Each structure stands twice: as C-alpha cells, then as structure tokens.
From TrEMBL:
Protein's name in the database: DNA-binding response regulator, OmpR family, contains REC and winged-helix (WHTH) domain
Keyword Nucleotide-binding tagged: no
Organism: Micromonospora citrea
Keywords: DNA-binding, Phosphoprotein, Transcription, Transcription regulation, Two-component regulatory system
SUPFAM superfamilies the record matches: C-terminal effector domain of the bipartite response regulators, CheY-like
Pfam family, one: Trans_reg_C
Residues within the DNA-binding region(s): 126-224
GO biological process, one term: regulation of DNA-templated transcription
Domain OmpR/PhoB-type: 126-224
GO cellular component, one term: cytosol
Cited InterPro entries: CheY-like_superfamily, OmpR/PhoB-type_DNA-bd, Sig_transdc_resp-reg_C-effctor, Sig_transdc_resp-reg_receiver, WalR-like, WH-like_DNA-bd_sf
Amino acid sequence: MTGVLVIEDDDRIRLALLLALEDEGYTVRGAATAEEGLRMQRQEPADHVLVDLMLPGLDGFECIRQLRRDDDVPIVVISARDDTHDIVAALEAGADDYVVKPVAVKELSARLRALRRRARAVPAPVPVLTFGALEVSPDAGEVRRAGRPVPVTRTEFRLLCELAEHAGRVLSRQQLLQRVWGYDTGDERLVDVHVGRLRQKIEDDPGNPRHLVTLRGLGYKLTR
C-alpha cells in the first residue's frame, strides 16, 4: 500500500487530509512541524510527502530542500499561497508539484498516482541530443552547455528531454502537463515556471531565447 506523509501544522487540515487520503486507499501519517516530518521520513520513508509552506520553526521551503537532499521521494506542496514567486521558490527547492488550498482530495490522489508512475517509468534509450552548444543526454541524465554540466532539477530535466525528443514541434502546456507530469488537467503555471527556470540555465539571453521559444497561444518548442 502506498504511504503518504503529510507535514501540515494546522490540526484541522492535517486530520482532514489524513482521513480523506485513507479513504483513497493510502497509508497516511501526519507531522505538525518540519522537524518532526523530516525525522519521520528518515526513520520510515513514505512514498510521497505533502508539505505546507507556512510551518512553525523550519519553514516549508527548507523542509523541501532537506527532504530532497535525502532522497528522490515525490514532494507535493499544499499551500494557501498561490503567488507565482512562492511556486517558483518551492519548485526550485525541489518540490515536484504545487497544490493550492483548499485541496480537492480526488485531484490530489490522481496527482500522487501520476507522480508514482513517473518515478517508476523506465525510458527507452535515446541518443545525445544537440542544440548548438547545448547537449541533452536522456540516458545519462545529463545536460551540458559548451561542455560544462548544467544543474537542473529532476522535473526540469524531464521537461527538457520531452522538448528535445520532439525538437522543432510545438507542444502545448496541456500536452507537457500530460507527458511530463502525467496530469490530465493541472495548473499550467507549473509548465511556465519550469520553462522560465530552464531558460535561465540554458540560454545565453533568457529574455530573448534562441532554443527554448514560445509560440504565443500555442505552447513551447526547442529549436536547433
């Protein structure tokens, strides 16, 4: 049975999530602080971790960073804060997804299943893909620019590989949500945030990108 750790300081919300996720068939544990949650995850790792950002003591952002340093467990932020800056910061810290409260448990459960499938997926062999000075190695899990390694998060890497493997083709935000995150529907800002972060890392001039371009009203494509 799939285990979920909920790190949420609001007792009412935490209990509601525990009961609702149990009804969805998960084995669920709860923690009221980041410190408690980190200790529980290290002692008995869950398959997924849900993290609130507004935690007492150690905040959610630092909790995510420490969780990510320990392992590759799928992390989903659950927060009332829906500002794009908070979403960017959480994803950059290492979160895989961001869900705004109030949480629709059926949708959350579907996202957890998609993240689990994504973590278990074994990609087919793909050669190194080259875009000028940019090299993407899906099999090696590496990105290089002018021969130097480019540090990317796990989700950024999957997004870049999806675009690279369909080079020259426009992929809509919904297509990318489906192919990279495994979601039938979702917040398209997830895609926009990751594209923006990738541009900062792979483009000489992120404000005027050469490779990762936007087709207004259509989506994104990676060009040579």
